[in-house]
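Q: Hand in one record:
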Amino acid sequence: MTLLFNDLVAAAPLTIICIVGLLVVIIEALVRKTDVLSCWIAGVGYLAAMIAAVAGMGSSGMAFNGMLTTGGYANFFAIVFSTAGLLSVMLSKTYIRKEGIEHGEYYALLLFAVSGMMAMAAAADLIIFFLGLEIMSVCFYVLVGFLRQRPTSNEAALKYFLLGAFATGFLLYGIALMYGSTGTTAITPMTQHAGDLAGNPVFMIGLALLLIGLVFKVAVVPFHMWVPDVYEGAPTTVTGFLSTGGKAAAFSVFLIVFAPKLLVAVAPLREVLSVLAALSMIVGNIIAVAQNSVKRMLAYSSIAHAGYILVGVVAANTFGSNGILYYLLAYTVMNLGAFGTLSILETPEGGHLNFDDYAGLSTRKPILAGLMALFMFSLAGIPPFAGFFGKYYVFAGAVQAGYTWLAIVGVVMSVVSAYYYLRLVVVMYFRDGEGQPDVPVSPLAFAALVVSAVAILGLGLFPSFIVDLTSHFF
């Protein structure tokens, strides 16, 4: 019992989120009309988990018989996931009421999704990683279809579930083959003995299948086709959470399993990842240019950003790995800010999501337009915002590793992305809107956008703070 208590304390952020999630479920079962109460309880739970993660950042260790890592790397991602959850809750309170889906289980699903993400980032064993992935995925399947009266939401949930289940089959079969060839599901022995295992065809096939499952979750080309339809059909606040927390969770496992030592030992795998990164940057950015829906544009840009982050994985060095952690934190706040703005301006029927609908926004809602412009500048990688330094770190890592061509592709595609991001800014500030509705702005949702904007500026002005903080993780 003492050992279990010590493990629960060591994994405090995960423990807190699980307890709060169960509390919300119990309250939902006992009390009517619990959405407001569940919202505040969830918000407090995320704050408590964030504080616990910060407090335990300096100490690293293992828990639950070596199945979970604690402190350091795991706690950094706990902060990222708690931030994504907290901002999503702040943005959701008014949004789900506007859409008529104010149910307490919405917040329970957000909490349990975060618990799955935390388990993935803290996994020292492939079984824990798979368990965390499935907890997160099941919650997202339900959340994507939460607009039950809207056919596009039902369609999005079905597509995501079917394709996700298919990808899970690849992933689980890969884990089985890796276990069969090594006799263990512990991740560290696999990465430490990668040179010896590289000659084992069963292990390599298992690794390839595991890679397929992971690249589906991060939406890398050619496993990206689900993204635009799922992102467009899901509730907008869920889309923001899925595109940030879900992506960060999958990349947290990428850095653990496809560690630099493994990629250096298995050179062909590194080349495959470099091609996937290049294709994702090219396909995501070029198709995003042709979109008239802001939501679909951000969906395709999410594919491009997955390519940028994958460049850091290919680099397989400390510079690239630190760059990924910085990029994921920056991407979380700037993309949640962008989708948060969409959720505020969206009408209950799912309208007001096209570029033309934002004409004259600078006149009607100047502060909201200014915040949206800041998010677009950061996503485009314009200095001194956080998005610029995120790309700088991963590209510099690639150059350091000898993948200069990949960095060049990234820079060129970043220029392309500036077109569709700045297009929205031009529409907001240099075109007049006619007959556009004047939507109310919730103080809580507005506070979430301000927090995101401040975080983007802070990360952009002091980028070395995060890099120095994460430098001892690798």
Observations:
- The two ends are 33 Å apart (CA to CA).
- The chain is about 80% helix and 0% strand.
